[in-house]
Amino acid sequence: MRTHRHSCVWLIAVLVAGASTGCEREQIHSYTARKDAPLQELAGPGRRPDAVKSPTRMLGGILPQDDQIWFFKLTGPPDQVAALAEPFGVFVTSTNFENSEPRWNVPEGWIVGPEKPFRYRTYLIGPGKLELSISSLPRPADLDSAYLDNINRWRNQLSLPGITAAELTARETPGDDGEIVDSTSPAGKLVLINFVGLMAPDAMPPFAGMGEGVPNNAEPQSKLVYAKPGHWEPGDRKTMREAAFLIRGPQGEAEATIITAGGSLRDNVNRWREQVALPPWSEDELKQNVELLQTGRLDIVTVDLSGPKQAILGGIFQHDGKTWFVKLMGPTELVQAERAHFEAFLQSITFE
Hints:
By secondary structure, this protein is an alpha+beta fold. It has helices at 39-42, 78-82, 85-92, 143-157, 165-170, 265-275, 283-289, 332-337, 339-348; strands spanning 10-16, 27-33, 55-65, 68-76, 96-98, 101-103, 111-112, 121-125, 130-138, 178-185, 188-198, 224-225, 233-234, 241-249, 252-261, 291-294, 299-306, 310-319, 322-331, 350-351.
């Protein structure tokens, strides 16, 4: 445990619950961490300048359990979230599982929010209705890499520099701009983070806002930019298409398109599955079969839908208050042969 010598600290009370029988007395432990660095410091070298107007604190937790890895995240104005640090810590470290279902000690006044894809649950906290999101993904074989990748994804959303594997092991953060600590819960060991940074306008967590449908009537605030593979030809720019390309091969022709649309993530993916003669996915099947592609400033949810004759490779992300859909569809053999080119295309997408 690291303790910083500052007059002001924030406190998370770590609740280590007793045995599942509830017979043992609960123990409260605590640790101290550094007071916020001035926001001017956080906007120094290495920080993205476009996030200056969005100071944000993030509290997070990562908890492996059986074949899943669970994520807890709360973000908002630094002072408001700082006041929730202690109840957040108590809540996360109270996590237990009964028949694979998580259970918590929920603080008074926390309200269960609306259901959203990829979220197990959302809690709305305080008069500002700050959102604490809880989600899970299949547990990866390399757990250390999963910790590092997710912590760096969160830091990127706050315009903070990434940390190395060595820094994560030592629980050190660059410039003392945050804190990473080990803790425990009745469900096992977990990692807690407390970072303060500058949230970029498009730095949204993966899957956020894709449950209720996203309004698409806002004026675009930036220009779509991409680098297409050399052999992709200009395609048919029909209504709603931001871009379209034709790909020819010995197996036939495929088409790549970019559009913006509304609707839930599951509804749109199941629409694609219907197009390639596949049955719809349940919410659990959707969680198990998507992957996350990080391109620097975009978190893109990707799917691979291979039907008996046709296939779709898809990418879905948010930007400018819209949900963007990138789709490559055609004969299964041709689409799979284009996988590397499609992934490179997704990686090239940015906005100016």
